[in-house]
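Structural prep section.
Before we set up the soaks we want a predicted structure of the protein with coenzyme A in place, mainly to decide which crystallisation condition to try first. Input record follows.
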Amino acid sequence: MIASRPAAVRHKPRALCEERAEPGGARGPGQRVRIEQLERRFARLGLRLRAPGIDDVPAIEAFLATRFSSPALEMVTAYDLYRFVRFGHPLLLEDGAGRIVASLLECTYGDAESTSYCVSLAVAEELAGRRLGADLVTHSALAASLRGCGAQRAVLAPHNHASLVTFINLCGHSVEAVYPRLAGFGAARLAIARPLDGDPLVDERIDRERLRGFVEGGEAGVDYALIPAHEPQRLCQLYESTPFQVVAFLAPERHAEDAWFVAVPPPPEES
Ligand SMILES: CC(C)(COP(=O)(O)OP(=O)(O)OC[C@H]1O[C@@H](n2cnc3c(N)ncnc32)[C@H](O)[C@@H]1OP(=O)(O)O)[C@@H](O)C(=O)NCCC(=O)NCCS
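Run finished without errors. Recording the tokens verbatim:
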């Protein structure tokens, strides 16, 4: 069962996003400058970014086993790893000793938007707190946009707060579909998407203060809807009965119980 409507990949309301100075220029040069900035940041942290080959698969498997547990770990099979490494644009970060400390697997598909699909984002526990996951996803988005992809997509678990903050708040994804019980997963999953059509690509990163002001100054049910994060079935109901989409994840404090999905109506031209 799918609780969703097909919809164009939406941009977020600018009123909720950080004002960021993006390198100017046309699509190509702007994107390349930002890729270089990210790579300099990795280098400053003593990390090397590289694309893995087939021989790296055992080390990737071993690294993923440190960051995922069953059954999520078994969902990425040897066939998948071969496919992502051989045909996709996967990224690894290695430390000075050549140990894998972060991964992002990717494959690009031939759908209408040439979707760049991400899986197995992981960052070593000892490097947490640096937003390295968001940097890897953004690097991949910039490169995908340069290849002509129109959207970056992934599937997330509604209880994985670190990945929700990383993709939805820091990288500009919105929830385009909610599956109450996604086949094969046996549990609720969120399909997320980020448009890659900007020229230059603008990060639609949520500004927490603006988000608070928006919620405090708006009208519930009209300007926004707040759905408790621990009640994904209410998210399904929202997607079944309204055109609202989740554009932000409000997690006031780490490990806090009171985390919320923030959904907004479509922009006027779509409604
Ligand atoms: C998801 C993951 C890659 C993020 O790694 P990272 O970039 O090092 O994450 P950070 O520690 O920098 O945290 C990123 C953001 O999430 C927030 N965050 C992290 N854990 C959180 C939690 N439990 N609740 C709420 N927010 C959380 C952080 O505060 C940070 O936001 P901020 O910089 O605005 O404060 C990492 O947690 C991971 O490897 N998880 C295990 C594998 C996994 O579940 N991958 C996702 C599959 S889609």
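Observations: Residues 14-204 form a domain with the Aminopeptidase fold (CATH 3.40.630.30).
Flagged for discussion at group meeting.
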